[in-house]
Fold these 4 entries.
Entry 1:
Amino acid sequence: MKILITGGAGFIGSNLVEKLVENNEVVVLDNLSGGNENFIEPFLDKIEFYEIDLADKIDDYFSGVEEVWHLAANPSVKDSSPETFFKDLKITKNVLEACRKNKVKRILFTSSSTVYGDAVKNTPENYETKPISFYGATKLACESLISTYCSLYKIQGFIFRLANIIGKNSTHGVIYDFVNKLLKSNSELEILGDGKQTKSYLSVEDCISGMLIARKKTKDLINIRCEATMPPEDVCIFNLGNKDWINVKEIAEIVVEEMINAGLIKGKPKFRFTGGLEGRGWEGDVKEMLLNISKLEKLDFKPKYSSGEGVKEAAKETTTRFKNKSF
Ligand SMILES: NC(=O)c1ccc[n+]([C@@H]2O[C@H](COP(=O)([O-])OP(=O)(O)OC[C@H]3O[C@@H](n4cnc5c(N)ncnc54)[C@H](O)[C@@H]3O)[C@@H](O)[C@H]2O)c1
């Protein structure tokens, strides 16, 4: 099958390329604004890679493509500029137009848990969506646009509302941030908020396996039923996260331990919490996030790593990368 991945040189994208290249013809479109060509370097002789901005003319790259994974976006939840994110809505429209013109069969989109805003613990997919950040608002707008295109032009749509994804090739997020800060000053670690922000973390390996399970088990059924009890749908929405959660202070402790083990820092630093904002890390930060993943579990999805285990593995991988200066 010919598959096109937008943002394929990024963190999640490069891990997805590694998996899909085994059995498919893969095309990657990425402007390298956040990605890194080194992440896909081992596959460059097997894939087609184009360094291009998705806001430009992209229709021709979609010729003969059956399935599109749309991952390209600014992944920084902390960014408070609406303009940055409106660009992500525009590129999503461009991708959908290219899908329509080239009769693409299926689109899979990486949305986010932030579409819910401050929500109840164990948030199900049918919980109300009230985002409190421009990032979350834009993801929700993209979801709506995808839903409309899928309905009008009979494209199958998969929307994955991801928890915090961690692991190989990550270049942003709390673990990366802590490693970076500790390398600059190892006597003190600044922690945004009160350290009690508690969220679910999923390894990138589990994230990709969850998305592939959803696609495999529902792609032939999607215009019939996403769930046995549901009416027919064009688009299936899946929460994708872990069964448990972990707080930011616990993550800091794991990262410190791994950096000491790797010989990158000598002793334990003092933790300095920025506080304020009701303990949130930044304006628009959701303080607690745990998604209900029972819809995916019914398709036999089971995360291999808990949040804590995933954080430990990711901290190890990130410190090794810094140690080897392989960024
Ligand atoms: N990492 C997470 O925890 C997480 C959680 C929820 C959702 N997501 C979503 O998953 C997707 C992938 O995230 P990631 O963590 O791998 O981020 P990333 O920054 O590593 O990957 C995004 C890629 O998109 C590319 N890109 C951005 N704008 C582009 C444009 N205009 N044209 C072409 N390429 C462009 C970047 O260069 C980068 O390679 C994003 O949509 C993100 O919002 C990520």
Entry 2:
Amino acid sequence: MDYFLITIKYIRVKQKVILITGASAGIGMASAQKLIDSGHIVYAAARRVEKMEVLNKRGAFILSMDVTHEASMREGVQRIIAEQGRIDVLINNAGYGSLGAIEEVDLDEARRQFEVNLFAVARLSQLVLPHMRKVQKGRIINISSIGARVYEPMCGWYHSTKFALEGMSDCMRLELKQFGIDLVLVRPGFIRTEWDKIAHEKLQEFSMSGPYKETANKMVNAHLNYLFKYLASDAPIVADTIVRAVESRRPHARYVSGRASGSFILARKLLPDSLLDAILMKMLSIFGKENKTTSCQTVKISA
Ligand SMILES: NC(=O)c1ccc[n+]([C@@H]2O[C@H](COP(=O)([O-])OP(=O)(O)OC[C@H]3O[C@@H](n4cnc5c(N)ncnc54)[C@H](OP(=O)(O)O)[C@@H]3O)[C@@H](O)[C@H]2O)c1
């Protein structure tokens, strides 16, 4: 009987109430699945609720949430508190890359990207933190990118959002320590999800026909021929890292995840800017060459 009660208590302590955004695809979907399988109570949020039916069948609670809409974020958090009485972990995963030359990308589109990749992270954190502070514990996990350290042409706004996310997260980590709340960053590398399709659609929209078209073409080719082909990992790899960040008693401030991610970050740390610039441009010219099957003229980029 004692053993039974201890087991129940252990399960209760370990089982976390988790809100994860961007759960309708890619990293968010894979993470939600693994978190459910690990026995946690998962609230999966995204705009395309129909895509999350598979999570619902596995036991997740589904939230229709647009992270740029105040009401849907507020209602989502209120529902979790009403049903569970607490939120132990917030995983800010929703995000997208809008590529194009800084000169050409419409500033409204750049602002939209900041709205999703940065301000939504801040707003959802504001909504959950009072509940975490009340119990003096909790964890916020922000999905950043190796793009918060390394850089590429045509990706300026996306990288800016992730650089900003890391700056904000580092400050928050110090602010939240006094309340027993952890702030953790996860930096995926190149991961096979819907991310690159959306990013290339935006690149097509802004930079495929003007003065930057040659660089834009090389960028798509380098992504499709090489980076997302040979250096990419599948979403469950990042999901494993996220589960580790959720369950670890003493989480690191940062986790890197995915093939070659550590090497990119190390290169940024060790190499002078001029050398890294030269390497990145050389990679672009070697891997950016058109090939019959993946040239950006032949790749169908559609919604
Ligand atoms: N894939 C990579 O190579 C890579 C590398 C480094 C970092 N990351 C980061 O990892 C995170 C997940 O990306 P992913 O690769 O899994 O991309 P993905 O397959 O495109 O999934 C993105 C998710 O974000 C959600 N989302 C986008 N805009 C939203 C909005 N306004 N409101 C609510 N949800 C929204 C999407 O759901 P709905 O459209 O249904 O709302 C979707 O579930 C992002 O933060 C991304 O920047 C990805």
Entry 3:
Amino acid sequence: MGGPGEGWVRIGDSSLPAGGILGTTLADEDLVIWRSMAGTPCVAEARCPHQWSHLAGEGAVDGEELVCLTHLWRFTVDGEGWKENVSGRRDRKGDLAVKPCVERDGGIWVQVRG
Ligand code: FES
């Protein structure tokens, strides 16, 4: 058993629970690892594209999205940025860069080169 192969790096552990968020760095890049409530692992840049809040500290998982609690922009597992108002209307916002990731052999892996 092993990882997904050459070009992939183990960045986290499968013990990360649904709704969990962790900050980490990879080659000087600040990243967050988070898991949606349905169990999808995600790896993304750590800084909110709005005003740069660090999502390991200011983020919260809401269903299948990572919410920046500073001004409530929210990001899908694919990194699409949205803001939702109190009546449920959703407007497109800036995206969060995500890294290809898979879960394998008890770990969460990101692709560092193709
Ligand atoms: S800094 Fe994240 S929503 Fe404003």
Entry 4:
Amino acid sequence: MIDREAGLSRRRLLAGTGVALAGSAMASVARAQAPAEPPPESDPDFAGPDHHPPEATTPAPETLKAVDWNWVRGQWALDWSWVNLSAMLFASNPRLVRTAIARHRDGLDANPVTYLEANNRPLQNAARQAAGQYFGAAWESIALVESTTSGVGLMYAGLLVGYGDEILTTTHDYYVTHEALRLAAQRNGAMVKKISLFDEARTATIPQIVGRLMGAVTDKTRVLALTWVHSSTGLKMPIGAIAQALKSVNATREPHRRVLLCVDGVHGFGVENETLESLGADALAAGCHKWLFGPRGTGVVFFRPDAIGRFAPTIPSFLAPNAYGAWLGNYDPGANTGARMTPGGFKAFEHVWALTEAFQFHNMVGKAAIAARTRALAGRLKMGLSQMPHIAVRTPMDPNLSAGIVSFDVVGQSADAVVRKLRGARVIGSAAPYARRHVRLTPSFRNTEADVDFALQALSQIKG
Ligand SMILES: Cc1ncc(COP(=O)(O)O)c(C=O)c1O
């Protein structure tokens, strides 16, 4: 059913185009590797600009006007004998990102100290700028982290709340949010309240979700801790509508009592055509090694500049320009920033620095095109599944309440058994580690209609 050979030969044909496009983009990234500033790590008093001048490292979104999805698919080095519907788990990288990682790895292997000194701060800041440009957010308020989990952990551990304050979350959120809140509350004394927003995701509505949430906000509520796209059912939360509803609550509150909207954004980030502004979140954490197909071990936390003062760093920063100066001079490092929220320490820098190319690749293909493609493939999958009597789809059909995750159950079979059988048919999906486990298939913009049809065909054979 899947014409993999056609895909492969087309890929070979188009490989040259890819190299040429990537080449021009990489040339401008390479220019960012010759910083004018001395490395702060070797000069503790150095308090130079926390800003490498913006480079035109990101081609305009128009670069690939009419998207050739075969070309896009050909940027991956996947084993094409599998149908990979697993974008929500762990990324493999497109060529542009692979090449950037390899270039930095070679530089570090040749001379780790000089390569690090020459590149570290400018390339971390270039990655923050690329993230800010991609997500319409102020780059100075972006922290670089290693995963969604570490981002969510830092976001909630850093909340400046205390005894008597309430944090409102839901029963639908993932382990990472619940556990980060539990651990944070043990230290800060705040109360974590969990509510249910619906019985079945499939039939949930936006007014119902917003109404239940706002109905649970009290005078003591300081934070809403939510997830953009639930990884159990694939329901996409109406974050924009929730932010809108919060505005009237916050309008009469002093700044330190305002309800903050904090989001685990990983399953919408790299999928949806939104910005931090359009969502209206105060803080959003997302791993970059899932739908964004960025380097493994990377993530970001976006803060609104007017909200970042409600958080404090947890791990000492190496990136803040006055980090060492404040330590040695024994003075307060000052207002919170994305650099201060970025954990310090030596890292797999070849991955951190290559984040820029991940955003570049998404911009090249186009955020709107990626969102539309993902929506179309997920819609096709949901439609096909809903026509099979032995399958119960758990994800809403409405694209306003869903993104790329498609969750379902096969009547009479455990989710794990179905995932195993799908593997036997060379389709990669997963089961969610929740109390109610569903099967999840997650088409992304590197998949084709044929991939979806192949998975549907395999599922039609998997009956109780
Ligand atoms: C909602 C949600 N948040 C966080 C994570 C963990 O992401 P990461 O591997 O980037 O820490 C997952 C699952 O992988 C998830 O489903």
